[in-house]
Amino acid sequence: MKMTHQFQVARTPDVVWDFFQDVPAVAACMPGAELISVAEDGTCIGKVSVKLGPLHAVFEGEALINPDSSTRTCVIDGTGVDRKGGSRGQVKVGYSIAPAEGGTDVKIEADVTLSGAAAQFGRTGLINEMSSRLIGEFAQCLEGKLEAGTAEEAAAIKAGEVKGISLFFASLAAWFKNLFRRHK
Fold it and tell me: What is the pTM of this model?
C-alpha cells in the first residue's frame, strides 16, 4: 500500500535536513519506534510496536538509510518480523526536503507491504489514516526538538506511546467520514 504525507516545518531546509541526519533524534520522534543500533553503513536495527484494537505487533528488523545531501532526499529500505504474531512487513520510504514560504516542506512517500495478521488492517484504508495521525505526531515532536533551547531539552522530547484503541477508533471515524464525502 502506498502512502504520501506532506507537512511544513518553520525552519530552514538546512536545519531540517541536519535534523533528519540525526537518526536517534528522528527515531525518538516516531511513535512506537525503538532504535537499537546504527552502523556506519547506514543500517539501523530497531523495533516498531503497533497496537490496533486486538492486534499487538512488535516488528523487529533493520533498515538501510541512503541519504543524498545534494538533493536533500533519502531512501530507506526496511524489513521487520513480528515473532510472536507471525506478521511480516517491508517498507520503502522516500523523503524530500524543499524550501517553502515560511520554512521547509517535508514530503514522505512510503510503500508498505504487510503479511500475516497485520495485513487485515491494510485492506480497509485504516493504515493510511493512522499513518496520517502518526506523521502529525512526528511533525509536532520534530518542531519541539528544533524549538528546544538546549541539547538536553531537545533530548527529553520524545514521541508519545501509540495508544492503539483510541488511535484505531479516531482513525476509523475519520476513514468513515472520508468514505461518505466521496460518495456524496
Answer: 0.80
Residue 123 contacts residue 112 (beta carbons within 8 Å): no
Instruction: Give the whole-angstrom CA distance, residue 137 versus residue 144.
Output: 11
Task: Identify the residue whose cell numbers are 552502523.
Answer: 39
Compute the distance between CA of residue 110 and CA of residue 131 in angstroms, rounded to an integer.
10
Model confidence band, residue 2 (pLDDT cutoffs 50, 70, 90) = confident
Residue 116, pLDDT > 80, answer: yes
C-alpha cell, 145: 526538538
Reported for 87-90, long-range contacts at CB under 8 A and 24+ positions apart, including other chains, are 87/57, 87/59, 87/114, 87/115, 87/116, 87/117, 87/118, 87/119, 88/114, 88/115, 88/116, 89/59, 89/61, 89/113, 89/114, 89/115, 89/118
